[in-house]
Amino acid sequence: MEDKEEFLKEFGDYYGYPNGPKTINEIRATEFKRLKDTVYLDHAGATLYSELQMEAIFKDLTTSVYGNPHSQSDSSSTTSDIVREARQQVLDYCNASPKDYKCIFTSGATAALKLVGENFPWSCKSTFMYTMENHNSVLGIREYALNQGAAAFAVDIKEAVDQDGASRSSVNSVKVSQHPVQRRNEAEVLEGELTGDAYNLFAYPSECNFSGVRFSLDLVNIVKQNAEKILKGSPYSKGRWMVLIDAAKGCATQPPDLSIYPVDFVAISFYKLFGYPTGLGALIIRNDAAKLLKKTYFSGGTVAASIADIDFVRRRDGVEEHFEDGTISFLSIASIRHGFKIFNTLTTSAMCRHIMSLAMFLKKKLLAFRHENGESVCTLYDNTSLKVSSHDSGSIVSLNLKRPDGSWFGYREVEKLASLSGIQLRTGCFCNPGACAKYLGLSHSDLLSNLEAGHVCWDDNDVINGKPTGAVRVSFGYMSTYEDAKKFIDFIRSSFVSIPSEFKKGYLLRAKSNPYPTEGIENRLSSSGCYLKSITIYPIKSCAGFSVQSWPLSSAGLKYDREWLLKSWTGEILTQKKVPEMSLISTFIDLNQQILSVESPCCEGKLQIKVDSDSYLCGKEEFYLHSQRLERIGHSTGIF
After folding, report:
1. Which domains occur in the chain, in start order?
2. N or C: which end of the chain has fewer CB within 10 A?
3. 461 neighbors 573 (Cβ within 8 angstroms)
4. What string of DSSP letters covers 37-73?
5. Could you give the angle at the alpha carbon of 613 between the alpha carbons of 611 and 619, nearest 5°?
6. What single string gives the DSSP state of each residue in 475-521?
7. For residue range 171-191, what is the model confidence (pLDDT) as tens digits?
8. What region holds the Aminotransferase class V domain (predicted)?
């Protein structure tokens, strides 16, 4: 309670909707009862729907008749009215006038981004510029640009900030660092031939889904009006610049104000906003930008007339009808108004302040953690201050954890332990390779080396060559509480912060068959009702392990645990996800003889490896020999 009182003293003006119709405690008690025993901290991946929201949707769908909007019945008219209302709600959310903007419904933010990429008027004189911090769904646009002969390059953008923490909109306050230019059809155009009649596209996220850093909307006007100046006269800066914002993450708390900033394209997903529906997003598009998109495909609902046996088609004039192929997801569209009702009740500004108070509190606590030797525990990946008044930081806290000796805890280890503690979060690079490489300090050679070592998205290779390949991400939603943040803080403290104790490097870790030991440290451990029943060692990653009652520790954890791995003949690192039969390979280590034994039910012989008694790493030549022999065992089982 003292901790919460301290928190409220610092963040009480922002936390918990003090001026709203419901406090955060009332919201959790009435609308998120299913979270009673769960700490959900992956709102950047998908936020949660309210139970009252779903009740309202169910009542709506079970008491109304919604027909296909392409029909002419009364139920179709009802659907058309709901869709029209939903479009206006989306525009209102971003303060966009229907005179200037239209709302095109898509299957999600990714589909909205793809729509822009595949229909943009690319030419060999065009440029696609994007910030390093971008989701793969934005990077995918690069394929369309390069295939049409356009140039593409990433940029790092740094903004000057006033002493009061506000970003300045002057072009002189923006520093742009350009990465190498990418081209596929260089012979088609020379740099000197680039002219001002090309259409260029600049893309960036309103909030980085890796670090939570928010980018200023002032970039819209700066790029549109001063691209040549900020790119220092680069020939690739010429032409008409259009701006695309990926607002899938940032729109949940700070939607772009399109009455002030003339963004050409804004992509959003509704499950990122209020949890339901999934599979529905929108592209908010300026009317003049819509006229430039060159759409090839047509379908039901997008044409005024077509003739089957000759080359004739006349497309519809309306922007929405022109780009929405087939029947839109009208029942999902009918559901979003119930989500917007929540947002309108709480207000986005109050939600933003509430979420930021939790993020700032968590950052402050994590940065204060120290191991017993004084070394810091947490490395945070952002470039913002801890001011609550700062609007540069969103709902995300991205981090990695270090041991007292400076080595890294693997993020998958953190995720698995968090799951055991009832905490759900996300780890990895979050489909944002540029931000991941930037914040983790991974060079191109590091990334290629990791790939050659077998590392791909979503695997368990979390530390390679002493460097993390991803991070741990905590992200809050409008329904998150102080207790959620506190439980994560307590989890980090109890699981990863070293404190003075009797357990030192070199001690033997013992499992007790008696759940109620009676002396020494064992007495103190039993006071919590917890005891260690057995220990399982897995010498070869993804192969079967063996259980023991006691086992030596090393500086990295259990000695010899996951010290070896299996490779295919082609050098690919194998796991049970790829080859489930690896679970049939059994292992055992005889500590007295210092021998690792490996057996397979499909192999007559037993492979025995002599491990070094001084250090548990073999010499290089011996290790390669063992690797080859392990491969043969795998081959004989039919695994490879």
Report:
1. 1-53+348-500 (3.90.1150.10), 96-297 (3.40.640.10), 534-636 (no CATH)
2. N
3. yes
4. T-EE-BTTT-----HHHHHHHHHHHHH-----TTS-S
5. 50
6. E--TT--HHHHHHHHHHHHHHH-----S--TTPEEE--SSSS--SHH
7. 666 788 889 999 987 645 554
8. 39-157, 241-488
Q: How far apart are CA 285 and CA 299, in angstroms?
A: 20
The whole-angstrom separation of Cα 139 and Cα 433 is 9
Mean pLDDT of the chain: 85
Strand-strand pairing, 508-510 and 550-554 = antiparallel
Crossing angle of helices 348-368/2-11, nearest 10°?
130
Look at 480 and 393; give whichever has higher pLDDT: 480
Cβ atoms < 10 Å from Cβ of 141: 23
Query: Residue for token digits 């992200």?
Result: 475
Of the candidates 104, 119, 73, the residue with the CA atom closest to the CA atom of residue 329:
104
Catalytic pick among 431, 436, 543, 618? 431
> Considering the entire predicted model, what is its pTM?
0.78
Which positions ≥6 away from 550 have C-beta within 8 Å?
A: 508, 509, 510, 511, 535
Nearest to 281 by CA among 395, 114, 424: 114
431 is annotated as an active-site residue: yes
Rounded distance between C-alpha atoms, residue 273 and residue 497, angstroms: 35
